[in-house]
Amino acid sequence: MLNPDSDSDAKNRVPTMGSSRSVTHHPSPIPNHVLGFGLVLLILLPIYLLTLQTQINGAEHYFMIDVGETQAVLNVWGTLHATGYPLYVMVSSGLVALLRDVFGLSAAAAPAVTSLIYGVIALGLFYALVVRVLATSYRLPASTENLSANSDQLSAADEARLGPTNHPLARLTTNHSILFAVIVTICFGLLRTVWIHSVIAEIYAFGLVILLALLWIATPPFGNRTRHASSLQEGGHKSRIYLLALIGGIGVFHHRAIIMVAPALLVAVWGDVWHPAAKRWSRLLRVLVLSVVIGLLGFLPYLYLPVRANADALWVYGDPGTWVGFWDQFTGREAARFIGTVQGWDGLLTNVGMVNGVLITDLTLPGVIAGLIGLLVALANPFRRRIAIILILNGLVPYLFHVTYYTDILSALILPVLVSIALGWALLVEWMFVMFSGWRPMSPAATPTIVGAAVLLGVALLVQNFPFIRDLTTDPTGLETIALAEQAPPGAALMLDWGPRYFAVAFAHDVEGKLPGITPVDHRADYPAIVQAEQPLLTPEFTFYNRPVSWWAERLGRPVYLHAVAPRLVQISTQPEQAVVTADRIAVGREQVMCSADSIRLDVAWIGPEPPARDYSVFVHLLDAAGNILAQADQAAPVYGWRPVSGWLPGEIVRDVYAVERITGAVALRYGLYYQAADGAFVNDLERRVEVACSS
Q1: Over 60: is that where the pLDDT of 152 sits?
Q2: How many H helices and E strands in the chain?
Q3: CATH class for domain 520-691?
Q4: I need a labelling partner for 568 at 20 to 30 A (CA). Which of 87, 149, 314, 327 fits?
Q5: What are residue 539's phi and psi, to 5 degrees?
């Protein structure tokens, strides 16, 4: 038997088919493995920590869209959007509580640290999988009996072709396998999708741990076990099958995409569940039935959803306390819009381009090519064919599903492809090392060449991904939205569309205890009830790009009237505020200037004419003593452009707010209304000046 731990050519020779010579097995050098993985962490952990998300999320990239929700849910033991991911929520909520209450981490940072923990575990499993693949030794049969039943073993033709001294792994020592595992794992950890999900509060690092655990269990060191003609009769490896069923069930109930690994796992364990010489259908059926029962244990965490709903927990998504609501959560009905056969060749090509673009961005084009070559080279090698088939299925099945049946990018389908391609790098590295070592003039250059190529790939990934991930994890939009919400008047209901901005404000309100005077609501709220309770209904001015005035009128069942109540905050009212006027020009009923540390704010109450003659734009200029413009806050129409004058009622009072940067030397604000005449000239129809007296 080949012993990959030995550097001796004599010991590394493979016995011939008729040989019965025993081979000494050297124990695996565990300390070296630990040191190897320690080197991986020494390089990757500082990079991960520099990009770790320590603030509330605000980014809207598809990687980040649900991060703010996760940050809140894990702090209050809530429930996530469909499919609920209850096991992830329970485990991660416990970790967040520990990190926050015992180790003093902030509520925003602790959820990301849980992903970092999962990411480190995933890297460890990936590293162990690479070591296992590269360090696998193979027990060649003493005779040609049962060769067809043992995919780990060579056919007579293969043995004759390779010969006793030409084993393609004869020169790959344990130290080399550890070295190559280190460089491949580092490059894998620098892949964009792997990296980002190790530093943000998301579910995918947890799923990656499950995926890699399944692959590791399913691919034991083939040479360290002897197959039996009737493995089911003698107990065989049923325990491995049951363990796969347990973890696989947990994985599928965590995220349905884990089912995509099933064909690869079936190939990996098929020799354990079926053998031509052991046609025991009853035993086979018993194993399969018991495996299904064990797999169904993964459903049990779903009891968490109704339990938390009935406990009136904060951040319970949907209505899992009812059967219909629970079923919607479990089936992920909301995601149905992304699932379905693509429409024609154009749809297929669009999907292929979208998925391939993500993979090339993650792996780089040379990285994709190298990984595929590694898998194909392994497929041609009888010693590697089985692991190559497992890895190809692991990546190909989710890829095909993604391009033919899923119309959005899903990291749970991208990650298995990345795992297979990256393990393809390991197989290519092994093949390159053997080829170089077999060519005497190039033999000394084998290791430096491989390491150099890996360093180039790693540097390219680092340079490409570091600023991208850093920008996402430090995006200030969430903090800016919280600052915006702090300006809302007490007692208001602040509407933000379900998404990162809403998550940020709700996190500040529900988790951090900030914004005590407002109630965050999303686009699904009961707006008539809010108005009926005489609670001011507010929303940021940018909301109207997606939720126009007509949407609000439809939801409230009556006309709506907009007023600015704070910088960039608009109140939606169902009753106009009016004054008795007879003038045919807009008047100013009230004006007020207020100073803050960094801005100067002008509050104006416009009074509509009788009747409105035309639409106007607004100019607001901050002036110095010489009349020079220091800053301005012009708008296409009052109320941030959303209340054209032609839509005002006669005598309607429209409250407006403008803010400009506070600049030293400012003495006055000049503001008013203007329009563009037919000849293109701008005409001021109303102009006022108000003094600015900000204390230092």
Answers
A1: no
A2: 22, 12
A3: mainly beta
A4: 314
A5: -155, 150
Strand pairing report for 569-573 and 561-566: antiparallel
| DSSP letters spanning 457-498 | HHHHHHHHHHHHHHHHHT-THHHHHHHHHTTSPTTPEEE--T
Contacts of 359 (CB under 8 A, 6+ apart): 368, 414, 417, 418, 421
Q: 29-43, 112-126, 156-170, 566-580 — which is least confidently predicted?
A: 156-170
d(CA 88, CA 79): 10
Neighbours of 425 (CB within 10 A): 25
Domain locations in the chain as residue ranges: 30-472, 520-691
Residues facing 605 on adjacent strands: 590, 655
Closest CA to 415 of 372, 376, 362, 369: 362
| Residue 595 β-bridge partners | 600
> Whose structure tokens read 């106007």?
616
The amino acid at residue 370 is A
DSSP secondary structure letter of residue 531:
H
Of residues 43 and 686, the one with the higher pLDDT is 43
Under DSSP, the state recorded for 339 is: B
CA angle centred on 193, ends 191 and 197, rounded to 5°: 115
Distance between CA atoms of residues 616 and 664, nearest Å: 30
Kindly report, residue by residue over 490-526, the tens digit of the pLDDT: 999 999 999 999 999 999 999 999 999 899 999 999 9
Nearest residue to 93 via CA among 243, 308, 285: 308
Q: Model confidence over 205-243: pLDDT tens digits? A: 999 999 999 999 988 664 333 343 333 334 446 788 899
Interval 16-67: pLDDT, tens: 333 333 444 445 556 788 899 999 999 999 999 999 999 999 999 999 999 9
Please list, in sequence order, all residues whose beta carbon lies within 8 angstroms of the beta carbon of residue 25, skipping any fewer than 6 positions away: 1, 3, 224
Q: How far is CA 56 from the centre of its chain?
A: 15
Q: One-letter amino acid identity for 67? A: V
Name the amino acid, one letter, at 17: M
User: Does residue 497 contact residue 523 with C-beta atoms inside 8 Å?
Assistant: yes
For 10, the token pair is: 């004599």
For residues 290-312, average pLDDT: 94
Give the pLDDT mean for 607-616: 82
* 3-class SS string, 490-503: CCCEEECCCCHHHH
